[in-house]
Protein 1
Amino acid sequence: MSESQDFGPRPAWMEDELVREIPRRKLDFLGQLFEQGQGLNQKEMMALMLPMLRRAKAEHLNFTAQEMNAAIAAIRKHSSSEELSRIDQILAKAGPQSGAKQGGPS
């Protein structure tokens, strides 16, 4: 079985230089989370995140604070202002345990 799955063309944020050092397996997981979270309200997003986080743990996908910051920064860089607002709301709900700052690296 292949370690990464091909879900078609990758979103622009996954090709950004900020995430080049993150393994494809991790990016694919984050891509799925981001895609499935589109259009969900905060309550629905939190309900989605809990099983996804359990799945990441079961698959031994551990993200460093640096990887999360880079991924969030890349996603923010390629997001609309409406998406940025939703990202900020989700990160605020996640609190300091998320390990990611809203601004991320420039």
Protein 2
Amino acid sequence: METRFRSGTYKKIKVRLPSGRRTMHFVKRKVGPALCAVCKTKLPGVASERAAKMRKISMAKKTVSRAYGGYMCAKCLRNKIKQEYISGSSIKKENDIKKD
């Protein structure tokens, strides 16, 4: 067995050949799905392939066309925008009070 196949990078599959002999096949492991940075749920609409295949996929299949698309799910983004809006408006009110 070659040294490069001994690592955990390859999945080892025992295969029976037509002659009856058993041999090992080495297959690259599957890549996990793209996850949300906040809640760790699977991101819909984002491809998950090995790096070589991802280079060939168009950008439209790699991300979602909105702010934080391909990084954060819509639910978490909605919460983030709400929090920023609430905290931003309260800061403005405090600044107005201090000026008077």
